[in-house]
Amino acid sequence: MLVVDVEKFVSPEQEPWFKVDEKDPVAYAKIEIVEAADMKPSDLNGFADPYVKGHLGGYRFRTKIQKK
């Protein structure tokens, strides 16, 4: 959440006028792709090595390229 202090924003003094509240994570998740089938190559010629993209809540991830 972004909080802006309007009084500090219009003040001539050089004080920080906003802050970002950062919360510590409550948990960690380790996701392991064990097996995949029928993965489509990313190039039109069919020779690109595939990878897996996904998301969990607001977090996005991508696996390393899997060599054929």
From TrEMBL:
SUPFAM superfamilies associated with the record: C2 domain (Calcium/lipid-binding domain, CaLB)
InterPro entries: C2_dom (IPR000008), C2_domain_sf (IPR035892), Ext_Synaptotagmin/KAHRP-like (IPR052847)
Span of domain C2: 30-68
Gene3D superfamilies (UniProt xref): C2 domain
Organism domain of life: Eukaryota
Name of the protein described by the UniProt record: C2 domain-containing family protein
Organism for this UniProt entry: Trifolium medium
